[in-house]
Automatic annotation (TrEMBL):
Residues 82-417 form the Solute-binding protein family domain. Coiled coil: none annotated. The keyword Flavoprotein does not apply. It comes from Streptomyces polyasparticus. This is ABC transporter substrate-binding protein. InterPro entries: Peptide/Ni-bd (IPR030678), SBP_5 (IPR039424), SBP_5_dom (IPR000914). Pfam families: SBP_bac_5 (PF00496). It comes from the Bacteria. PANTHER family: MONOACYL PHOSPHATIDYLINOSITOL TETRAMANNOSIDE-BINDING PROTEIN LPQW-RELATED, PERIPLASMIC BINDING COMPONENT OF ABC TRANSPORTER. Residues 1-25 form the signal peptide.
Amino acid sequence: MRLRKPLPPIALALTSALALSGCFAASDTSAGAEASDGKRIRVAMMNPPRSGLSPLSDDAFKLSRWSTAETLVTLDDEGDAEPSLATKWTRTGDLTWSFTIRDGVTFHDGTSLTAEAVERSLTEAAGAAPKPRILDGVDFKATAKGDTVTVTTGEPDPLVPQRLSSPQLSILAAKAYEGKTVNPVGAGTGAFVLKKADGASSATLDRYEKYWGGRAKAAGIDVTFVPDGAARAAALRSGAADIVEAIPVSQASLLAQDQITEVPMPRTNTLYLNTEKGVFRDAGQRAAAREAIDAEALVKGVYEGRADVAEGLLGPALPWAAEQREGRTGAARAAKPADDVITIGTFTDRAELPEVAATLQQQLQDAGFEVKLEVREYANIEADALAGAFDAFILSRATVIDSGDPAAYLHSDFMSDGSFNISQLADTGVDEAVRTAEETAAGDARRAAVLDAETAVLNTDAAIPMLHERVIQGDAAHVVGSAKDPRERELITPDTYIK
């Protein structure tokens, strides 16, 4: 499936703003509608597909948010696995898990969901190049037998069920894999069938009348991709859209407050300090930087109050973290700020970060540090950040990756062999704590181990969590039952409808 060449940003914004009212079908009619009752839901989404809606890419999250492609399991609010296309599972050995496949499910092309169909989808994912993130570095094999699928891993993995909740491991009909790319049109099992995907412009979905989970209340979904945030907000104000995702902070105050919902995201705005060289190699200097930062001023100023002050690396999107966190158990005493100039890097791709950097610069200078900023596009600064070229780096970082579990984030960002270790941290206590969390079975014990690892990181002052971002979702007054999901896996469910 070929994507249209994107318009330049200015042209795209103008096109979106001026022609938006013509982009959405009326909410109760559509050329693609097959249902005789219920209204259609018009949705304005931020990012257009980047990989032709392939479920093996980040586009998979769109398919999940539209309730068209489904996985073997889903996650509850705590991050524990729940049944979906698999009704139950059991660990049958150190390296093996058995999943029982739900009976009576049909794909949107009318073919039946079978263990062999599940094996095919998971095998395609395991052999993809590149692999879905959730399988990166994981030796993974699926084998069908009767109504079960056995998943075998190269090493013991207590998170296999959570991995299988990733939208990138959606189960699709055989027709999806007939070409060179995976094409999800008419190939899912969800409440809505994807009828048409018009490149980077729009998508059309109709209610699937034979959905195993019960008939959806809406007749269908009409999606328009609107990258410009002001244009998305305008669509909600004008009534051109029923649901709008990712409204910018700057636009939220222009909308009626009963039209917006702020959802805590598992994303933390953090100042990473270089522990390997430079000023912040000294623990006392790192402590001085921590004490100089006024996170509440950042939330009130840069984010207009639409963020949460960080108490740790893990925020309110993971409610168990706040409930169980005991906090820092020890840290170095703050030293007098050094005379050396410190360089803080960040990037322009997230609109708030340059302003965060400027505010932090002032706060640190007020405390006695001399600070220089270096701000570039992310693509042009990532390599230097990972190489330890800066004394400090400001990053907005997702703290739960596709499994819904924070251990992978803690490993990549803070273990000695972490692939995203901007702080250049090499601490045996942190390594041991994170490794323990990774090896602990899912559930309360694992969550407790994760918080122990968080405490170990905080005690080093290698990373200073400042705030947790929120995603702002817009719903017209006549929308009922849209999902407000911090993991951004759900949006339109079978129970979503227009009054």
